[in-house]
Amino acid sequence: MRLTGVYDNTAEKEGLIHGWGFSLFISTEHKSILFDVGADLTLLVSNLKELEISPSELDGVFLSHPHCDHVGGLSGVLKKNSKLTAFLTRSFPAPLKKSVESYGAETEILTEPREIFEGGWSTGELKGFHKGQEIPEQALVISSSRGPVVISGCAHPGITRIVRRAREITGKSPYLVIGGFHLGSKKKDEVKKVIEKFRAESVNKLVPTHCTGEEAIDLIREEYHEDFVEFGAGAELTI
Ligand SMILES: [Zn+2]
Ligand SMILES: [Zn+2]
Question: For residue 130, what pLDDT band results from cuts at 50, 70 and 90?
Fold first, then answer.
């Protein structure tokens, strides 16, 4: 499996533009999936081009939650590929679902945990909150020879809860967790507790990015040493 940072708060490669948002290209033996599509359509399209990822090769787009920094670039992909499947959740706003369908793309609406392609599961909708508002979110879990890989958008339901759900679904400890962990507002002690939970779940590698927060990322780097992986737009991981 190959994971490529397409859209992120930081860029790790020359020629790639950074911006607040998240999008990750996942290429497995079975499928090519884009996880979230960032905030800005032009930025997304430019980075995809720079990375030589063609939207027409995508089998699906997996959207974690409807915040604009995760769904903003959607039309840039759908305009070039209307044959893909968009994996959304029940609580996505109706206009967004309709706009996906208006391009002719199929939608799969998820509520409960389910295998959505060979070796790939949605965690189902987990209840989350952001600034006092309810914002349900799904994460993606993909099996690999080293163990499950967990991909998180913003982790509004809590990154440890997502990891726990991934273990319940697969029956295995996650090998790697990547994405937004949303720890920016947490105090140092609280972040340390989250890191302890990653250890308790036997998570091997941590790849915190997007909305995780700089201080939280520094703490994870200190605690996870060589099992911390720096990530951003243009970075690539092979598992
Ligand atoms: Zn976000
Ligand atoms: Zn969000």
Answer: confident
Model-level pTM greater than 0.90? yes
Q: How many A from CA of 145 to the centre of ligand 2?
A: 30
> Which range marks the domain in which residue 115 is found?
2-238
Ligand 1 centroid to residue 62 C-alpha, Å = 14
Q: How far is the CA of 65 from the centre of ligand 2 (A)?
A: 7
Count of domains forming the chain: 1
CATH number at residue 218: 3.60.15.10
C-alpha of 83 from chain center: 22
pLDDT score at 119 = 94
Orientation of helix 214-224 relative to helix 188-200, angle to 10°:
40
- Output the CA 87–ligand 2 centroid distance in Å: 17
